[in-house]
Every structure is written in C-alpha cells, then in structure tokens.
Amino acid sequence: MLQGDEDDVVPAANGKRIADRIPGGTFVKLPGEDHSFVTEQERIIEKTCAFLSA
Questions:
Q1: How many CB atoms lie within 10 A of CB 30?
Q2: Which DSSP symbol is given to 34?
Q3: Calpha distance 35→7 (Å, rounded)
Q4: 29 by DSSP, 3-state: which?
Q5: N or C: more exposed end of the chain, with fewer CB within 10 A?
Q6: Full-model pTM
Q7: Strands 28-30, 2-4: parallel, antiparallel or unpaired by DSSP?
Q8: With helix as H, strand as E and coil as C, how does 24-48 read?
C-alpha cells in the first residue's frame, strides 16, 4: 500500500490498516505526497514495479 502522508482524501492510518490485513502486505508512507501522487513519481514507479515483479 502506497500512501501519501498529506493525503486529505484517505487518511494514512487507513492505508496502514488495509496493508496490515493483506497477507504479505506492506505499507509505504510517502512524505509530502497527497492523494494524487505527483511529488514522488519515481519512488512510486519503483515501488510499483518491485511489487509487480515479485
């Protein structure tokens, strides 16, 4: 689960709870990122590709 710590649509705590309930799930809090994921695009792509190739 990728979650921006400045997301005003879905609180980061909700993302963490979801990730904790998914077997093998992980939670990555992205500092300074909001709901649109435009600030840390490289990190988001890296994490997404790592997940898809696992």
A1: 19
A2: -
A3: 5
A4: strand
A5: C
A6: 0.71
A7: parallel
A8: CCCCEEECCCCCCCCCCHHHHHHHH
